[in-house]
Design goal:
CATH class of the largest domain: Alpha Beta
Number of domains: 3
Strand content: 5-15%
Structural class: alpha/beta
Number of helices: 14
CATH architecture of the largest domain: 3-Layer(aba) Sandwich
Number of strands: 7
Largest sheet: 5 strands, parallel
Radius of gyration: 25 Å
CATH topology of the largest domain: Rossmann fold
Length: about 300
């Protein structure tokens, strides 16, 4: 957004913007911020079955209220190749392409406009970015947040910008007249998200052989367990193939380096058979749960016992 603010301050704005973000909340926030800097005559379109004539008519029409027209196209990744070729480059009006998936239009926008493309953002990059945004939000109120308090908040919540901003708002109010938010404040009013708890449980069960699984969340836990077993199988396979650094990077682009180092050591100890058989055992209890078995706690215990027998 710094580019946009700078352009606005000099009286110049690009006519074309591409906003590529997978999560609706963040993408909509960026588009709303853009619209504040652009003329008010804005109309929304959908990339799904885009009406090119209606878009062209809007972009090329003068506004009764003054200012050049603005078009915001959501689901821009659905726009067919070449659909905008007769409209671009723009000489009048403004166009915002909002995409939640890879789009051929990002390269075009890069040549002719401003691009914010976070579609391939790494998890640790996203965490650092959101952390910075939260710190800025707190400072805007005249407060600060202790480093351990922010770390604790990120540990207890899913990496969801909207959810974390709401938690920060709660903490700002809860801290009252105090100028710094402390870890104790986070523990007092911020509860752990269920997804995070399930993920932590799955990690403990697969990698450590520990942890207590809540049978009430049996069907939500199954995908998390499968993801950990698949990760282990992938790491074990790379080890067995003596894969190169590039092959590791391509195969596991979203795993934090420190986490990967730890999981690689554990995978070497557990062995490839542990993860292969683990996927089979997991499929077995899931099948049982969908064909009449309702003792979910017993099924999880059965899975844990069988999994342990396959470890080296």
């Amino acid at each position: 957004m710094a580019q946009i603010k700078s352009a606005a301050s000099t009286g110049f704005l690009s006519r074309l913007y591409f906003v590529g973000m997978p999560h609706d909340y963040e993408r909509n926030e960026i588009c709303d911020a853009l619209l504040k800097y652009l003329p008010s005559n804005a109309q929304k379109f959908s990339g799904v079955g885009l009406d090119i004539k209606a878009l062209t008519d809007h972009i090329q029409s003068n506004s009764l209220f003054g200012g050049e027209p603005v078009a915001l196209i959501e689901d821009a990744e659905k726009i067919p190749k070449g659909a905008l070729q007769n409209l671009l480059p723009l000489t009048y009006g403004y166009l915002i392409l909002a995409s939640k998936g890879k789009s051929i239009l990002s390269d075009l926008a890069e040549k002719e406009g401003i691009v914010l493309d976070l579609l391939n953002e790494k998890p640790w990059e996203k965490e650092k970015r959101i952390q910075s945004q939260l710190e800025i939000k707190v400072r805007s109120t005249g407060k600060t947040i202790a480093p351990d308090a922010l770390a604790l908040l990120l540990e207890r919540q899913d990496l969801d910008a909207g959810l974390l901003e709401r938690e920060i708002d709660k903490l700002i109010c809860y801290s009252g007249d105090r100028l710094q938010i402390q870890a104790a404040d986070v523990l007092a009013i911020s509860t752990s998200s269920r997804t995070f708890a399930l993920w932590q449980t799955a990690e403990s069960l697969i990698w450590e052989g520990t942890g207590i699984a809540d049978e009430a969340h049996f069907h939500s836990l199954i995908p998390a367990l499968r993801a950990q077993l698949q990760l282990g199988l992938k790491i074990s396979s790379l080890l067995s193939l003596n894969a190169s650094r590039d092959e590791w990077t391509k195969a596991l682009p979203k795993v934090f380096p420190k986490t990967l180092e730890k999981r690689t050591s554990q995978a070497q100890r557990l062995g490839i058979n542990y993860f292969t058989r683990g996927l089979v055992e997991l499929f077995d209890i899931e099948l049982k749960s969908r064909t009449g078995a309702t003792q979910y706690g017993a099924l999880l215990d059965l899975f844990r016992i069988k999994l342990a027998t396959h470890a080296r």
